[in-house]
Amino acid sequence: MATIKQVAERAGVSVATVSRVLNDNGYVQLNTRKKVEDAINQLGYVPNEVARSLYKKESRLVGLLLPDITNPFFPEMARGVEDELQKEGFYLLFGNSDESLERELNYIQTFVQNNVVGLISATNLADKINYENLPIPTVFLDRGSQSEYSVYSDGFEGGRMAAIEMIKRGSRKLTVLKGPAYVLPAQERFQGSIEVLAQSDVDFQVISMNSLSFQEGLSKAQEIFEKFPDTDGIIASNDITATAILHKALSIGKVIPNDVQIIGFDDIQQSSLLFPSLSTIRQPIYDMGREAAKLLIKLIKKQAVEKSHIKLDVSYVNRNTTRKVR
Amino acid sequence: MATIKQVAERAGVSVATVSRVLNDNGYVQLNTRKKVEDAINQLGYVPNEVARSLYKKESRLVGLLLPDITNPFFPEMARGVEDELQKEGFYLLFGNSDESLERELNYIQTFVQNNVVGLISATNLADKINYENLPIPTVFLDRGSQSEYSVYSDGFEGGRMAAIEMIKRGSRKLTVLKGPAYVLPAQERFQGSIEVLAQSDVDFQVISMNSLSFQEGLSKAQEIFEKFPDTDGIIASNDITATAILHKALSIGKVIPNDVQIIGFDDIQQSSLLFPSLSTIRQPIYDMGREAAKLLIKLIKKQAVEKSHIKLDVSYVNRNTTRKVR
DNA sequence: TTGAAAGCGGTACCAA
DNA sequence: TTGGTACCGCTTTCAA
Asked: Could you tell me which chain A residue has the CA closest to the CA of B71?
């Protein structure tokens, strides 16, 4: 690995001059520049980002903290973040917290130690407090308005939509799944659904979940179909649990959507691949990632930020676990 | 952010001494150590990794290069890599290449500029050549033996298994999908299947695909069912295409697996969630990630490496797109 | 057992 | 328009 010193020697100039042509600032005569560029090419020199980062006290690195990239919700989001950051020449330091506070704090510290210029966090667990004294801007993804900068989607409205569609499509005895309290976005969805249902003429019941896992969905579905065999519509907390419910329903011989309508939330990729394909409330996952990155970039560059809380719209995706509307 | 100098001042010692207690080497008297530790705690000091990295010419960072995290195959792999690296205190710099050589080279360069201590690459496109003059060890993931260090699974044997199972379960007119030439692992699978079929008494045909996307799977399925309506078994290149085929088959009224058996490759998470769930050849995706990380760690630590090419076993996963064996 | 100081590879100020 | 050099925060050698 060639260094700036070697380039300077070969070009017969000082390191200061090399630095000038590298960063394209200060005065450099044309033929001096030429000499330096030749030397750079001959040596295959690339500047050491670490040295640069040390002096400037900032890098081209951004930290991205996710609960678990293995959850199909997050890869799309990560991709949105990356694609947007890449345009501006930023790179990702990346970690999964598994919703463990210890892991989360550990990653945050490591990111900071490595001079990241910003942080995007999509975890549920951590309190704002853990991010408060950081020397760098932070954007929270997929969580509500309590934090200073955030990008999320309109869960409340999504919950409303889900309930409205279920009723419109004929369900009269609904079951609403309620996600665990620490998953904030799931709470908003739930509230939205409840609001609509409470104002309507249908019966409904609420089942609380301890996690949004497939396994948990399966066992809750079992419970629902056993205890309330006349349920004709289920509003799930996300697509994973909706998928589990669909699975269980099919395996015990329910006809979907005739016997039971099912609606999910998120619209992860696989939801359209199920058979029957899953009707759901779509979050613009990829765009959420992009918006978060765009917001962070503005913060990094200390540009004016018009909105510090960016709420994106959700939409109903009509597929085959809900009935045709008459 | 406190610096080592501030710690030294507060503790009334030199920075050299602070460094010694930090790294736990050299002689430090017990009460000196105490003073330093107190100062560290009072100031909330954490060492600057960038400065450390600059001097030592190595970091705690590892580069991970994937084609696309959005492809459900890769998150699990990435998780395996991360979980193993984390144990040793390494962190991930991460990028998606989209199989673009330009992006790939760009990421590699950035990784190197940031002093990564090692690299794991799961891309298909890039030639070994792009990695040859790197100053750091590289492990190739999910690709064959041409490269110096690699972790992959036994695609050839997997391809054989797929064909054997299809025949055993009664298919007599098989269609084998062949992935694009640049996706090396897909070629091996294909070769394995072909070998078995060629030695058997069944009819078979080969359809070449230009990509392993869902869309392409859908259109090839259409073609197959139109042109060869008597096909009673399809061996797909991966689970994504198998899913597309399943979809198309169901939508035109085929009964699965009675009319047509379908077998995939990979066993990505969603395959078990389909209805009917997808029979497939399972790659130990998570373990592949872990093994790659373990191998890289050995290389980084310059420990002896017993095997530079790690081939993991695949297995047949019997689900509901293949028939019960009599 | 401790401290002074050189050096890692850059950037940027100041003087020439 | 250029070069010398201090400095970023840390590690390590050498001398005390």
From this structure: A75
